[in-house]
Structure formats: structure tokens, C-alpha cells
Design a protein that fits this description.
Elements (H helix, E strand, L loop, with lengths): L1 E4 L2 E5 L16 H6 L1 H10 L6 H14 L4 H14 L4 H12 L6 H25 L6 H9 L3 H10 L6 H5 L2
Antiparallel strand pairs: 1-2
Helix pairs in contact: 2-3, 2-4, 3-5, 6-8
Length: 171
């Protein structure tokens, strides 16, 4: 695209468009370790392609071998944001919660907090069921909707002694 007078071009713009057609699918952890920015672009541009699983696996394998620092955290976040609207995001989040616990980024911390809260919810419901405390669908929904870790911990402690859900909730 030329901008300016037709006989005297002042700027020529050549847009660079990245996509699966011109960004390689990086599936080798050694290549990821050498060029993490390119690997991140590979994940984002191939997020809907068949080889996304191999790309993400290579990135996670390389990240395990690398020290977690601000640069690697940046690319972890970039990948998460870039693929968040695709089915590959779920695979990435599973890798994040299971394999990349050394990352301290905000998203990584939120994922870990969500995992702890979900575990507490499941433990709470399991204890109530095991003790024979009747839990209505409304009460179960209230427990599942709670994302306050302190509240879940309180309920979990109470679940060891209560005989009704009303007692659990302190009502």
C-alpha cells in the first residue's frame, strides 16, 4: 500500500500477516529453548491446527528445563491469551496447573487458587455425603459457587461436626 502523492511515494507499507501458512509448527523442545518467542507465535498461530498438542507439549517440556523468570512468564501469558478462545486453551491450562507450578504470574496463581478451591468444594461435598448429611441441590450449588478460600475452609472444618447444611452455613 503506497501513501502519498502518486508520482512521489513517501511511505510504502508492507503489512506482515502471521498465520499457520508462514509460521513453523515448533514441536521440538530444543528449538523452543533456543527461540521461545517463535515457539509462542507457533502456538498462537497454530492454535486451531491438528499439531497444536505437539506444539504445546514441546513448549511445556522446554519450560520445565528452563528457569522460570519474567521473560518466560511473559511468553506463558502470551500463549494463554493467544489461544484462550480455542479448544487448545484447556490443554494449556492443564499443563499450567500440573507441570508449571514454578510460574508466579497472575494467571498461574489464579489457576492454582481455582484448583485449591475446587478441591475444597469436592472434599466438602464428599465429607457431607460420607457423614450422611443431606445436601439439597440449592446447597450444593451454593458450595460450588463459592470462590472464597477462607469461607470454604470454614465450611470444611464445620463439615466434620454438623448434622445439617444449615449448621454448615451457620444459619
Amino acid at each position: 500500500m503506497a501513501i502519498g502523492h502518486t508520482s512521489w511515494t513517501t511511505i510504502t507499507l508492507h503489512p506482515l500477516v502471521l498465520g499457520p501458512h508462514n509460521v513453523p509448527a515448533i514441536t521440538d523442545p530444543a528449538v523452543v529453548a533456543q527461540d521461545l518467542p517463535l515457539a509462542a507465535l507457533s502456538a498462537v498461530t497454530h492454535a486451531r491446527e491438528n499439531d497444536i498438542g505437539a506444539i504445546l507439549e514441546a513448549i511445556v517440556t522446554a519450560l520445565r528445563r528452563m528457569d522460570g523468570n519474567e521473560a518466560t512468564e511473559f511468553y506463558v501469558e502470551l500463549i494463554e491469551q493467544g489461544i484462550s478462545h480455542t479448544e487448545a486453551a484447556e490443554t494449556w491450562r492443564k499443563y499450567m496447573t500440573a507441570d508449571l507450578s514454578f510460574f508466579r504470574s497472575e494467571s498461574a496463581q489464579k489457576l492454582r487458587e481455582q484448583g485449591r478451591a475446587e478441591g475444597r468444594m469436592q472434599d466438602l461435598l464428599m465429607i457431607l455425603q460420607h457423614r450422611g448429611v443431606a445436601v439439597s441441590d440449592v446447597a450444593a450449588d451454593r458450595i460450588r459457587a463459592c470462590d472464597d478460600e477462607a469461607q470454604l475452609t470454614t465450611w470444611l472444618r464445620r463439615s466434620l461436626d454438623v448434622s445439617s447444611v444449615d449448621q454448615l452455613f451457620g444459619e
